[in-house]
Amino acid sequence: MAKISVSNLNPGMKLSKPVVNEANMILFGEGTVLTEAHIERLHNMNINSVQVEGDSKPKKAKEEVLAELDARFKKTENEPYMGILKKLFIDHIEELYK
Q1: Which residue of 28, 36, 43, 87 pairs with 19 in a disulfide if CB–CB is 3.0 to 4.6 A?
Q2: How many helices (H) and strands (E) does the chain have?
Q3: Looking at the domain assignment, is residue 57 inside a domain?
Q4: pLDDT in the model for residue 3
Q5: Beta bridge partners of residue 26, listed in sequence order
Q6: How many domains does the chain have?
Q7: For residues 85 and 55, which has the higher predicted lDDT (pLDDT)?
């Protein structure tokens, strides 16, 4: 079970705990599979984070993941668009390890 920021939610993720408001009223039940509309509603209600199914910690060390990424992009490091893609992956990895 992972606690994840609402801004990092994606459609298809499944809640592992109910989402409740300040009055303890259940907004979304445990097991709800999130849609784009659910995520927008959570944003509008100023919910900061929710519990979703899945591991909360990556299985490999960040340095190992970044080294693997470098190896994968080694042959294409001089291609401009590949550099942009690599940067996106690095940003995503950094977010996972916060």
Answers
A1: 28
A2: 3, 4
A3: no
A4: 84
A5: 20
A6: 2
A7: 85
Task: Indicate the pairing of strand 19-20 with strand 26-28.
Answer: antiparallel
Residue type, 40: E
Handedness of CA 38, 16, 2, 10 (dihedral sign): negative
- The pLDDT tens digits for 65-93 are 999 999 999 999 889 899 999 999 999 88
Rounded Cα–Cα distance for residues 92 and 38 (Å) = 23
Residue 32 C-beta-side C-alpha neighbours within 13 Å: 20
For residue 22, give its domain range: 2-52
Task: Name which residue leads in pLDDT, 31 or 97.
Answer: 31
Q: Which residues have a Cβ under 8 Å from the Cβ of 36 and sit 6 or more positions away?
A: 11
Nearest to 19 by CA among 95, 36, 93, 43: 43
Which of 18, 33, 52 lies at the terminal end of a domain, its last residue?
Answer: 52
Structure pTM?
0.56
